[in-house]
Design goal:
It is a single chain. The protein has about 140 residues and is α+β, with helices and mostly antiparallel strands. Helices cover about 25% and strands about 35% of the residues. It contains three helices and six strands; from the N terminus they run βααβββββα. The chain has helices spanning about 25-40, 45-50, 125-130, and strands spanning about 5-10, 55-65, 75-80, 90-95, 100-115, 120.
Amino acid sequence: MAEQFSVPVTVRGYETDVQGHLNQSVYLQYAEHARWSLLLAAGISQTELIGKGVGPVALETTIRYIRELRAGDDVEVTCAFVWGKGKSFRVEQTIRKTDGTVSAEISAVGGLLDLERRRLVADPREVFKALASDPEAFGF
């Protein structure tokens, strides 16, 4: 089994709130950064997606905040696509400090939108698989 995909991030001071904690909206930005990084690692760019007439969409996102993050903390943001049948898929992510402390868990439901028809494609897994030069990043 391949090692789980992750990207490193350092919490920046301007991302924190008045209590000195990482602002809640920034957790979503970190998750989004990891998802796009996984796509790039698989060989899929935004330009290529648009050229094929598709784009990923978020349908639902749940964040479970576990431990605070502060400016200067180094974290790893993991990303794993979980495939089922149908038009949607899950993306499971963890934000973990380098000492192993889990700071947040993010679970999302996504889809792949046909940009012309404005409808979800029937089988996003097959579209990603066809576009990827390194499909292992998706767990294929």
